[in-house]
Write a structure and sequence with these properties.
The protein contains 11 helices and 7 strands. With 251 residues, the chain is an alpha/beta fold. The protein has a 7-stranded mixed β-sheet with strand order 3-2-1-4-5-7-6, sandwiched between helices. Helix 4 links the parallel strand 4 and strand 5. The radius of gyration is 17 Å and the shape is globular. The model has no long low-confidence stretch (mean pLDDT 93). Bound molecules: S-adenosylmethionine (SAM). S-adenosylmethionine binds next to strand 2. The site of S-adenosylmethionine (SAM) has 18 residues, from strand 2.
Length: 251
């Protein structure tokens, strides 16, 4: 079954596909791709894309290699999303995204700057992150990590890092790097996420939930931010890279 999150990825690629690539495949960069489990289905649905993932955890990277074995036009690089990406040209991607990653990023400025550096002028940039760890904490360990991440970020190692990410901070960093913010959307009501686990493949009800989520963003934005983030703890900031490249400053 396509999950709500996978439907979101499809939405991002559809949006990016509206931009002209002069007939060449749409280049997609996924920073912090994990095992890239959603990629084979994505490439089946959009055969004309070229997918590049970046993943720094060895086990997840190996998982991604396994999931992408035999998949044409898909590759993954084993590295942090701070460092230059070998064999990939700067300013060559039509869409740069990350999913459930920003809340784990210790050096957010550098991470966002890297994505901008590899984005072509006019590219779509979407970082969707999860506030669930911070707002719906499941364990004492998670609670402690979030408090440390929020207040003394230097203490936590990169791999255990997690924090609350304020949306205005992400917006400000987009602008700093020459990305025009188009909108912020909110997703993944905890009960919807629980509901989808019980649904069959190609469930019409889950598709309807996603369509509802996208259609009523205006109503969601009317909810005061604290309550909004609790109700919809996945936050996506959408932007377009401008013609100037300001991303070099922070790298
Ligand atoms: C919750 S997982 C999400 C994986 C995948 N995007 C998904 O949605 O299934 C967070 C991912 O961010 C990656 N990550 C954490 N810090 C990173 C960094 N500095 N650079 C790149 N990736 C990072 C982790 O290794 C992990 O795979």
């Amino acid at each position: 079954m396509k999950s709500l999150k996978e439907m979101f990825i499809v939405e991002v690629v559809k949006e990016a596909s509206k931009r002209s690539t002069d007939g060449r495949p749409l280049r997609v960069l996924d920073l912090g791709c994990g095992t890239a489990s959603y990629v084979p289905a994505l490439l089946r649905e959009f055969p004309a894309i070229e997918y590049v993932g970046v993943e720094p955890i060895a086990a997840s990277y190996q998982g991604a290699l396994k999931n992408l074995a035999g998949v044409d036009r898909a590759k993954v690089h084993f590295q942090l999303g701070y460092d230059s990406i070998q064999d990939e040209a700067e300013k060559s991607f039509d869409v740069v995204f990350s999913l459930s990653v920003l809340e784990h990023i210790k050096h957010l400025d550098r991470f966002l700057a890297l994505g901008v550096k590899y984005a072509a002028s006019g590219a779509l940039i979407v970082h969707r992150y999860d506030l669930g760890h911070a707002l719906h904490t499941h364990s004492l360990k998670e609670w402690i990590h979030v408090r440390l991440g929020n207040n003394v970020p230097g203490i936590l190692p990169e791999r255990q890092f997690v924090r609350y990410v304020p949306e205005p901070e992400v917006r400000a960093l987009y602008e700093k790097h020459g990305v025009r913010v188009e909108k912020t959307t909110y997703h993944q009501m905890p009960n919807h996420k629980a509901f989808e686990k019980f649904q069959a493949a190609e469930s019409e009800s889950v598709k309807a939930l996603f369509a509802w989520e996208m259609e009523y963003q205006k109503d969601i934005l009317n909810i005061p931010v604290e309550k909004r983030e609790k109700l919809f703890p996945a936050v996506a900031v959408w932007g377009e890279k401008g013609p100037g490249d300001l991303s070099q400053d922070s790298l």
